């Protein structure tokens, strides 16, 4: 494995898992019968028994079968059982069983979240969407219905056979579910916005176990909420229908990778600043991110640029926007340019590093500033150095610019829940993703401590310099971070109100049965909300779904 590529990644990733065979649809039995619920020691033992009774070929006890998570902190947890439903009806049955038996649960798509409990339920039931892996291209080829358990690599392979593409993730093993519900930064963000901005409809099992199809016209408020705040807050999304398009170059997209030694840092940061504030806004077909990392094998610190262009068709020349990177001297053995299908790019990234590591991701946002980046990277080295000998340690700071043009695209069909497009003339913005990777649980304490010291100092510096922005990208956030303040007061009030309306019993709240991940609301007092608490808009719905 070429360690230079580690610079170009957010963190380690696992190999894509093949989907399990689809189970035949069972006749769903009456789960509330006395017979089904008698004689079990815990609520989740009961739930598993009821599910096993009706969906025997979809149920697994403990960790048998094909069950993998990207991060070992998540895979270390042991659910009483896990279930792999194959349809919205089966998801609905499973959810109703869990509510009736009061068993706590978690929902898993690609399993790439880093926080224990967010997509695996210790001592509970994990709903693994792995069998929800259909790809159905519409007759007019303008949209694709996608199962929520599919991974991006498998989706791109299926779409490329059809000569189509969608806006999605950049690493094959990541799930369509989590990435799309949190936003979704992609190679196409500058031209089309985030993955969530390109979802036309959501099939969802709501917290009362009913199945709904949510579109901009059927329920604009819930539709908007699902576009960025949708993970584990409003129910279980089973299918996404996404806009599809014919890719501009059937051969794939242009990619350039170049690694720079730390001595070139000030010139490199200046290039990034010029790109972000100028070329990125002029050329809608570019995408880029920059990673700064410590590589144990070399005992050295490097910076690396990942550059993409979706319409540049010459594999041996550099697009104009990236020519300054071509000119700056890099590490000779770590420079490459090529044109490849999106599926290959995402699979290549996926294969470079194995699963089986412990990871933290954390994030904050700021306005372009060479001075801040230089200070942040100094703090990064200061705080990562004392723990640099931890087994398997790869600390990295990845910086992704979000253009004004990309934020404008977030206004499509009533906008999204990220809140950025609600601000006048927003952008360009810089999103930091700190990824901290290590091997042994015995290093957890000092790893977390060093990570927190770095993030606190880095964010405080951005505030002192007046370039800090309150937004925090939920897909990169660490569990202690406040991801909601930055979406804007009115937007947040609306998201919380929608969550209360959709989920009056608080199933998907902090303290509810599905309590992992970033929650909009806490479990209501007494476990049930009043009509007034739901905004006084009827028993449950403001509008009919
Ligand atoms: C190696 C790597 C590469 C990444 N690359 C990118 C990238 O290119 N662009 C980007 O924007 N982000 C990227 N991310 C961040 C990624 O988008 C988030 O970590 C995302 O949450 C992962 O989704 P998942 O389905 O794989 O994870 P999971 O752990 O399965 O799910 C994450 C959360 O979403 C909830 N959830 C998942 N599916 C559903 C559903 N159908 N209904 C309701 N809730 C659901 C889960 O319950 C869980 O709480 C990357 C992360 C990693 C680790």
TrEMBL record:
The keyword Signal applies. Residues 75-247 form the FAD-binding PCMH-type domain. Keywords: FAD, Flavoprotein, Oxidoreductase, Signal. Gene3D superfamilies: 3.30.465.10. InterPro entries: FAD-bd_PCMH, FAD-bd_PCMH-like_sf, FAD-bd_PCMH_sub2, FAD-linked_Oxidoreductase, Oxid_FAD_bind_N. The keyword Oxidoreductase applies. Residues 1-16 form the signal peptide. It holds the Pfam family FAD_binding_4. One of its GO terms (molecular function) is FAD binding. Belongs to the oxygen-dependent FAD-linked oxidoreductase family. This is FAD-binding PCMH-type domain-containing protein.
